[in-house]
Design goal:
2 domains; binds acetoacetyl-coenzyme A; globular; eight-stranded mixed beta sheet; Rossmann fold; about 50% helix; alpha/beta; about 300 residues; about 15% strand
Length: about 300
């Protein structure tokens, strides 16, 4: 890969693997490639990878058109980013993994256990999960000191923050490397001292979202008015309902469900209105309908 100052300060981190070609995984992979790292985005099937590639190419080409990036930088990033369905072969030659697969603990434990078998000894294994804390997957590996959460925000190409969250066994060296990588990606690091489901930013979002859903449920105001209050009174870029549609109703629901599974506290359960929306299959922008209806473009 091309040596960038940021990359050289990271020592051994030259190749980054991102597991999952969904909204988060694909954009994280492009963030890494744009920052100068040789990057592979891995998924279980070719179809989501091709969809992700097309969407990423469209986004970065638009950045060139709008003068936000140079054509040379974008061409180089496309060169550095590859796509694969062969997880073991990619992980066998990688320096750091960012897992952005489905929010399901059993699936993640299986992924971490099998990556641990094939990854080089120095390889750091991180998860982008905001609710499944890394201690839940670290003990599926023989390298808990090299496991932590590295949590990006949606859309990852735009949002500046990355939360770096150690579990009880994560080494100081791992934290330092993951922080340096996030900085090399051009992100602002939010470092947590210890694990808590949801971390810092999403816990604040969850509190706002719960209040918004309670207000809707109580018939105090409709979706549009509640979003208008967040934007016009609080200067938020989006209202809580618009944000659920952006992140995905399914993701918002599964995050609550995963938190409930970890805490056993009924206060963690998805709000009944969120549950009903999830069960209706209207997941937000990705399905064309959520709290709002979206046209093709
Ligand atoms: N992917 C990549 N880039 C995007 C994007 C997307 N989905 N949506 C917008 N952008 C970029 C584009 O460059 C766009 O410019 P063009 O349309 O000219 O290409 C630029 O942002 C501006 O977009 P818009 O004019 O459409 O709208 P905007 O100015 O409102 O910006 C936004 C969009 C950046 C998403 C902004 O509304 C925002 O910051 N919203 C809040 C997002 C937020 O809170 N995210 C955190 C969610 S919580 C989370 O992620 C946690 C989790 O664990 C899931």
């Amino acid at each position: 890969m091309t040596e960038t100052p940021a990359a050289s300060s990271l020592g051994r981190i030259q190749h980054v693997t991102v597991l999952g070609a969904g909204t988060m995984g694909s954009q994280i992979a492009m963030v890494s490639a744009l920052a100068g790292f040789s990057t592979t985005c891995v998924d279980i099937a070719a179809e989501p990878l091709e969809r992700a590639r097309q969407e990423l190419w469209r986004r970065v080409d638009r950045d060139v058109e709008k003068g936000r990036r140079t054509a040379e930088d974008v061409a180089a990033a496309k060169e550095r980013l590859s796509f694969s369905t062969d997880r073991d072969a990619v992980v066998a030659h990688t320096d750091l993994v960012i897992e952005a697969a489905v929010e399901n603990l059993e699936v993640k434990r299986e992924i971490f256990a099998s990556m641990d078998q094939v990854a080089p000894e120095h390889t750091i294994l991180t998860t982008n999960s905001s609710n499944i804390v890394s201690s839940k997957v670290a003990d599926a590996t023989g390298r808990p000191e090299k496991v932590c959460n590295m949590h990006f925000f949606n859309p990852a190409l735009v949002m500046q923050a990355v939360e770096v969250v150690p579990n009880g066994q994560t080494s100081a060296q791992t934290v330092a490397t993951v922080k340096a990588l996030a900085e090399a990606f051009g992100k602002t690091v939010v470092e947590l001292k210890r694990e808590i489901p949801g971390f810092v930013a999403n816990r604040m979002v969850a509190a706002l979202r719960k209040e918004a859903l309670d207000l809707l449920d109580a018939g105090v105001a409709d979706v549009e008015s509640i979003d208008a209050a967040a934007k016009a009174a609080l200067n938020h870029p989006m209202g809580p309902f618009e944000l659920m549609d952006l992140v995905g109703i399914d993701v918002a629901y599964l995050i609550r469900q995963a938190e409930y599974e970890q805490t056993g506290d009924e206060a963690s359960l998805p709000h009944p209105l969120l549950k009903a929306k999830y069960e209706s299959g209207d997941y937000g922008r990705k399905t064309g309908k959520g709290w709002y209806t979206y046209s093709e473009d």
